[in-house]
Each structure stands twice: as structure tokens, then as C-alpha cells.
Amino acid sequence: MKLNIFCNVTQRRAEATSTGTLLTWPNFTAGDRVKIGIRFLEQIEGSRNERSLGLKSGKLTLGLIDAQPTSGQLSLKVGSGASSAANTTPLVPHNVSPTALAATINVLSTVSGGPLSPCVVTLSGGTYEIAFADGTTPGLTVVQNTLTPTSFARIRTREENGAGLYEMRLMQAPLAQAPLFTREVPPAPTIETVQDGGADEALTYLIPEIQRLTIPALFRGSFVLRYGEFAKSPILGPEADDTTLADALKTLFAPQGYVPTVRAEEQGSFLIVFEDEESIGLDMAPLTVEVFTAPEGDVTFDLDLNTREVFDALRAASPRKDCYLEFEAEVCDDGQNPADSETIGRTVTLFQSLVTLQRELNWSGLAAAANVDWLRPPTNRSYVPFTLDHILTGQQQAFVAPAIGDGEATEFTLDHNFPDGVCQVVVVENATGRILRDNEYAVHLVAGSLTVGGFATVPTTAQYTISATAIGPESVFQAHTHTIAQITGLQAILDTLGGRVEALEDMVAVSGAGATAEKGWSSSIILPPLADVFPAMAKKAGKLVLPPLPRARIAVTPFAVAPIDADELPEAASATGAVYLWHEGRSEVYMPGDSYRRGRLVKQAEAAAFMSDGFYWWLAEGIASGSYYPTEMNRVLWEIAVSPEQLAPGRRLKVNWSFLLALVAERPELRGTYMLRVRKGRPATEGGGDPNIEGITWDSAEDAEQLLFEQKLTLTRAAVIHEFAAEIVRAANGDLSASKTIYGKTTTAAAPQQTNFILRAELSRFDLTNYTEPTGLPVGQVYLACGKPEGDAADPINKRFKLDAGGDAPMVLSATIS
After folding, report:
1. Separation CA 506–CA 713 (nearest Å)
2. Could you read off the pLDDT of 644-685 as tens digits, one per residue?
3. Is residue 329 within 8 Å of 340, Cβ to Cβ?
4. pLDDT higher than 50, residue 426
5. Which helix (H) or strand (E) holds 320?
6. Which of 807, 774, 773 lies closest to 788, judged by CA?
7. Cα–Cα distance between 43 and 9 in angstroms, integer?
8. Which residues contact 23 (CB under 8 A, 6 or more apart)?
9. Contact 660, 719 (CB under 8 A)
10. Beta strands 398-400 and 464-470: pairing type?
């Protein structure tokens, strides 16, 4: 297991990300080896930066904080010289009383050749304080220790009123420790060829070259892309996105005139597609990645949890939730200005975190019996004629045992579970790498295991490693077959051909039983067009003016979150940045008016929250991240309800829609964002029966709503027509599958969870770019048109953007089940 964490050297704590997310440690399992990579952050005046921290030494320790032994004994020697009855106490218990300890020490006769001054012992907070009458500190050491769990006696000297005394505290040893670290450099970006460019055998169509760039999440530094010997791109960083990468590739291939397309896959993965007129069909040489600035390696510890102390701790309680992981380091001057300059040259604890230690389920002593493989199966043998496309199956099976030897045992039984008991055994001496001769050990074979012994001397700890190789199994020839995934590029070719066949099937009649000469559909769904300009104009001094626009709020400092516990909300000016939630038992509240609208009574069903920008109150909704968005800006584009009878097995629902969206604001630099969310769910019946519909239960997975898809949209003064499509297919066996088309690119999507489902496309989570009051509050309106709207609502949109100047509006809105 490998963990990568950030150490905040300013706040001395472990964090999960560079943005300050607090780390939640996984449970540590006894017997594991855990690799922990550490990067360093400093925080100065609210700014967080990753930095290089020079370390002279460091260690990672897992243990119990200040835990004391629970049993056992120890004896103390006073003074120097060899231990004898004159200067060494007999064994005393771990919880010896101060009086008994003093009496035991005072019995001693001489210390370093002289008489022993009597001592007084007191116990304070679990620490023994030992003071001799003459004020001297003759020396105090532990000469015998049988404390359990494994423990130490920590003895320190201090001075009090001019006289010396000893402090002795019994403490359990750490459970595990990694006293050394290495610097591990994060992996660099890589390029791989997904599909070679070319053409089909008949030269009827061209195949684009596709290469994939992968930027590992842990990569730091910068890199360039190279093509050929000399051409290279501008410098790129780990935060590069598809737009940045496309610009860099355009510069790289400027001499050739190629303009590759870049498509983002999952985080850090990009497809580079050569599909422009100049490069499509060319078999391109792979791009190469060259790291421009080498990143510094992460400080990495290898913590071994296979220790006696770990298992001793779990005997007392399992799991142990009182364990702490501590990182202690000696910081050296690295020529920079660290967040805490006083730590230079000192050993400091950089973080201490509470973790849970648990027992393992599988351990090395467990062994499973081999499955029964009948020598003569109850079926006829089949013989495949040999051809040149056959492959030989079957190979020798190998087994390597953990290192053996503990200084006591002379024989070792190991389970290998080979189907045939006959095997070849090799014994290697770990220190020298020498393979032992046959006369230096003996092997006894039994079914499923072997016993090794007969060594000339008792093997020391981990002295030998044993490997065994089976003689079989029997090899046969069989037909040479592959899965689609094993043949590089085959799935992409099949997907392309499948899309073309599907397009042809849509254009021609399908022959067969039940087919008609003309393709039809089982349901035609007419979606109403939509036109809206909102918010409505405000009326001031008898004139219509642009209304104010809301923006999102984050319910953390400096924004306050408070419950509604009064009949009326306060004035918006007195609650700048506040978010108010409903108080338990309250179902309505009066929202005061402002310069934009009148005050009114708001029911709890209308909104989940209220938020204030210091001038106006806005109805709001919250999401899991803690952000709140104005619900007054939400708009539903369309909603479809489909029954199992409509979408019978073998049928598909297709929805195509496009809509115009623009933000016409008084200040042209203002921009807005919307989230297009296509939600899926099922009708919720009242009381669990039919036919009274109570509402919609939206699909969810892992306590979060599961959408068909969502897409973030940016609004400016320029009107943009956004095009989308969705398809739900019900297979012959009744299973549902779904796909989504976003700006022409089709990918798979999460299908509805039931065949009786509802789809809803909505615009929500509206937000504006940040603004400051001196520049004026944001005012303006959102222009929205979906389909081909007509009438009074569509007139201002058609007039402003001249949608009717060239005839039909360039937008579609259709849904069919076929």
C-alpha cells in the first residue's frame, strides 16, 4: 500500500491535498508494509505553497502515546563499574511503590567504592523522582528488564535547589518505526499509440492516428512534447488541460500545418487525434515526452507493521484506536525561508495523527487445499487438428517460499498445492546468493506440500530461500482465440463500423417479421418550445430598469450559516454573505422587501435556504460541497415520463435538443455559469400504491444523486447555441443502457434504474463572476430559447439575436420512441 500525503509545516499536521483538505487515514493492518510519501506545504499570510524542505534525518513512528507497561520487572544499578549485589537492586515489579523502591535502593552497600547516600523516592504523575541525601547523581541505569509489553525505563537528570535528582518513567516501546527515508521521484508523463493512422484496404475511408498522453496525478515540474529530432512544444505543466495542450500541439506541428484535436478523458488523460484535412490517414511517429524541469523526489518511508510490538498491542484490544503516527525530522538549512525559521538545525515533530490499527484476516500460516482435477473427466476427449495458428498452452508452475530460518527449527514444511506432487526444489543462501548442493539438505515430498531439512547446521534467522518448480502440467494444442480487448485498436474499428451501420439502418426499412415498408415509432413525444428572459425588469421611478443578478454563496468563513428562528428575516443589508436554513418546527417566514421587490411570506416548500448579498434576499438550494445557489434562476428545459409498455424490449428513446443561452448584463465584463443537469428518476407513489403520484424519486448511488449527465455552461453577452442528445435503449432481455451526446461527441452514460422512469433537463446552480461594490452591483438578464419558440416571450430574443432573419431558428427539440 502506498500513501501520498502533504505535511503542513506551518500548522504541523498531515493533509490529503495541497488545498488543505484534512487527511483521513486508512486503517493500518498488522503484518503489512506501508509506503508513505510526504510533500511539504507552508502557509504564509493565507497563501499556501508547496516547498522543498531540507531534511538531515527523519523517522516515522507508530505507537501509543506515553503508555506504560502492564506487567514485568526491572532492576537498577547505582553508580559505575560492573554490576554486583553491592550496587544492583534485585528485580522489582513494574508498579513498585515509591517506598519499596527507596528501601530496595538503600539496602545497597557501596557505590563506586564508597558508601551509598540514602535516597528518597516519590511518584508524581507516573514518574519516579529519586533524590540522594548528599545531592549527588552517582549514576542510575537499568541492568535487567522483563517489562511487558516491550518497554523502556527513560531516566533523566535534573537539578532542583542546587541538588541533583533522577526522573525515571517506564514507557512502552513504539509499535513500529521507519528510521530512514528515500527520495522517490514521481512518474513522468507518458505517450502511447491507441490507433495507427491509415486507410482501409479498399482506400474508401481514412483512419485517424490516435495517441494518448497521460499525466500522472503525482507528477511535478514541467515537460515538453517532441516530434522528430528537433521540433518541440512550448513548456507544459501538470495542470495542463485540453485547451492548453491543443495550443501547444498546434505550435509543435505548425511547420506541417497539422491541427490535432485533443479530447480529455479521465483526470490527467488526453486523446490526441490527427483528424484534420492535412494529417488524417497518416501513420504518425509517436510523440515523445521530455521532462523539462526534474521534480524533487517525495520523502518516502517504508513502515513495517510485522513486528512483535504490533501484535502485542492488538492482544489487549482489536482494533486499537488509540495509536498515533508521528513524523519527526531534523531540519537543516536549505537556503530558503521556511515557515518556522526556528526549526533550522533542530529535531522537530512535523505532525502527529491518530490512526487505527487492526488485525489481519489472512496470514502466512493459512494454506488452502488444491482443487480436485480428475485424471479422467466424465466427458469425451476432443481433438483439434493441428494448424499453424495454434498455440501451445500449459507451463511450469513456480512457487517461492518466504525466507526460512529462526535459529531453532531444523525442518520446514511448506505448502505449494501443485496438482502433481513431483517438483524440483532449489535452496538459496540469502547472504551469498549461493545455490546449495543436493548433499547439503534433504527434501521429502507429500501431496500438496514438501518438507526441507537435513542441514549441516541449524539455519539462522532468514538464512535460506526455497523455490519449487512443478514438472507439469501436460501441454496440449488448442484453437488460438482472442478477446476483443486483447487486439489493439479492434474495439475502435468496430465502434466506427457499428455507428455507420446504425446510420444506414436509420435510413432504410428493416426487413423481417413485423417490419413495414416505412419505419415508424411507438410513441412520438412533442416537447414544447421554451423562451424566457429573466429575471423580470424592475420598475424604479416609473421606468423599467435591468434587474439585479444573484451569485452563489459558500457556506464557510466569511459566510455565516444560521437557522431561521424568527417570524421575519433580518434586513439583507445586515446579513451580508449570510446563509439561513430552516429551523426545526418552522414552516414559513416573512422575507422583507427591497428596492427590487416587495416583501412576502415564504413557505418552507418553496426553498431549502435563503442567502443575502447585502442588498437582496435570494431563495437558495445547497449542495454537498457547502455551496448555495439561487433557485430563482433555475429553469426546466423539458421533462419526459416513459412507461415500461412504451419502451418495450428492443425499443429506444431518442431525445435531441439545442438551446440558446446568453447573459445580457449592464457591465460587459460580467460572465455567468450554469450547470445543465439531465436527471433521471421514477414516479414516487403516495403511500406506496397507485395511482396517486406524490413526486419523483431521483436515482442515487452511494448517497449521491446519479445523473444521466451534466455539463457546465459559460454565459457571456454572445448568444451560444448548445447542442445535446440522449438515448435510452431497452435490450431484448429488458436491460437498459444509455448514451449521451455532448457537442457531437457520444459516450456511454448511467441508464435509469427502472424501466418506469422520468427524464428532466434543467439549468441550475447559476453563478456570476466575483464583483466588488465600488464597481456597481451586477444587473442584467438571461436570454433562454429552447427549440423554436414563438409569441411575445420569443420576440425580444428573436429581435436581439435576429433568429428569424434567415428563416427557421437553428435549434431542434424532438423525442421519439422507436
Report:
1. 31
2. 888 988 899 999 999 999 999 888 888 999 999 999 999 887
3. no
4. yes
5. strand 320-331
6. 807
7. 8
8. 5, 6, 14, 15, 16, 353
9. yes
10. antiparallel
Cell of 711: 455539463
- Reduced DSSP (H G I as helix, E B as strand, rest coil) percent helix, strand, coil of the chain, to 5: 10, 45, 45
Q: Distance (Å, rounded) from C-alpha 328 to C-alpha 339? A: 17
Cβ-defined contacts of 334-338 (< 8 Å, 24+): 334/52, 334/53, 334/54, 335/54, 336/51, 336/52, 338/9, 338/42, 338/51, 338/53
pTM over 0.90: no
Strands 33-44 vs 2-8: parallel, antiparallel or unpaired? parallel
175: pLDDT strictly greater than 80: yes
Mean pLDDT of the chain: 84
Q: Do residues 98 and 128 touch, judged by C-beta distance below 8 A?
A: yes
Report the amino acid identity of residue 703: D
Which residues contact residue 458 at a Cβ distance below 8 angstroms, ignoring those fewer than 6 apart?
Answer: 407, 408, 409, 410
Phi, psi at 349, each rounded to 5°: -90, 115
Kindly provide the b/e burial profile for residues 97-132, where b requires at least 16 CB atoms within 10 angstroms of the residue's own CB. eeeebbebbbebeebeeeebeebebeeeeeebbbbb
State the cell numbers at 550.
444573484
Range among 341-350, 428-437, 677-686 rated most confident: 428-437
CB 7 within 8 A of CB 38: yes
**249: nearest Cα among 287, 294, 198:** 287
What pLDDT is stored for residue 199 in this prediction? 85
pLDDT at 385 over 60: no
Would residue 663 be called left, alpha or beta, if left means φ above 0 and alpha means ψ between -120 and 50 degrees? beta
Peptide bond connecting 558 to the previous residue in cis, omega within 30 degrees of 0: yes
Give the position of cell 513500529.
Answer: 176
DSSP one-letter string for 259-317:
--EEEE-STTEEEEEE-STTTTT--PPPPEEEEEEPPPPEEEEEEE--SHHHHHHHHH-
CB 464 within 8 A of CB 474: no
Q: Which residue has the higher pLDDT, 389 or 644?
A: 644
- Cα separation, 1 vs 360, in Å, equals 14
Mean pLDDT, to the nearest integer, of 71-77? Answer: 94
Average pLDDT estimate for 554-559: 55
- Which of 16-20, 233-237, 539-543 has the weakest average pLDDT? 539-543
- DSSP β-bridge partners for residue 535: none
Residue with cell 526534474: 294
CA angle 487, 488, 494 (to 5 degrees): 80
C-alpha cell at 788: 423554436
Q: In this structure, are strands 736-742 and 745-749 parallel, antiparallel, or unpaired?
A: antiparallel
Q: Is 578 exposed, middle or buried (0-12, 13-18, 19+ CB in 10 A)?
A: buried
- Across-strand partners of 620? 609, 630
- Residue 518: phi and psi, rounded to 5, are -130, 130
- 368-386: average pLDDT: 60
- Cβ pair 768, 633 in contact under 8 A: no
Check whether 382 has a pLDDT greater than 80. no
Query: For every residue of 391-439, which 3-state class applies, written as one string?
Result: EEECCCCEEECCCECCCCCCCEEEECCCCCCCEEEEEEECCCCCECCHH
Give the 3-state secondary structure of 229-274: CCEECCCECCCCCHHHHHHHHHHHCCCCCCCCEEEECCCCEEEEEE
pLDDT of residue 512: 35
pLDDT of residue 519: 42
Burial bucket for residue 690 (CB in 10 Å: 0-12, 13-18, 19+): exposed
Alpha carbon dihedral 753, 758, 759, 764, in 10-degree steps, equals: -100
